[in-house]
Amino acid sequence: MPTTMPETLAEKIIGEKIAEWEAHKKQEKEKKIEIFPFLTISRQFGCGEESLVPELEKALGWKVYGRNLLDHMAQRENLSRSFIETLDEHNRNGIDDWINYLIKSGAILQKDYVIKISQFMKVIVAQESAIILGRGGNRILADQKQGLNIRFVAPLEDRVKNITALRKISATDARKMIQTTDKEREQFNKHYFSDDINDSSNFDTCFNTSSLSQDNICKTIALMSEEKQKTA
Hints:
Blueprint: H1 7-31, E1 38-43, H2 49-60, E2 63-65, H3 68-77, H4 81-86, H5 99-105, H6 110-125, E3 130-133, H7 137-140, E4 147-153, H8 156-167, H9 171-193, E5 205-208, H10 214-231
Parallel strand pairs: 1-3, 1-4, 2-3, 4-5
């Protein structure tokens, strides 16, 4: 005749097993890093980002990380801001000529810069909802489903008008500035991410800032982000 386990012993075993399960669940939860909703923005130079991004920041209530990423990096790595800027989205011409010197001196290389920026981006979205401006954010954070990847574009002539008014320069100089900046950004993405920055399939959606109002763009992005969180 089978013996019956004393109730107190059974309760003890069950209690221990429950405690074991709870401890395991806690460990698994601690292992899993929460990623907050975020937005990455790629943009053609002169498409109105100077006014659009601040409006988007207000609409979402998220902090914008753009050039201030360089400040964080310079402070963390004890490097000058001007040195970091030479490794940013600018043309690599001239950089390759002194790579060997940088290796010998122990200074940060351009590839190391990309690694550091990637680390900073991942830390940011693990701590707060944020808007990541440029610097390959859509590729660096491509594996995070909580993110929405956006690109802003506009016809060249409209961008020339924007830069002419914003920088108080001639249309000729504005056109040259746009072409140079666009080329630098394209080369940066091509070199480090084997990516065509103009390929719309790398983004969730693209907005023509000349044909849509900033208010409509902000409202649409806010709605898209909200909907994406439901499926993330």
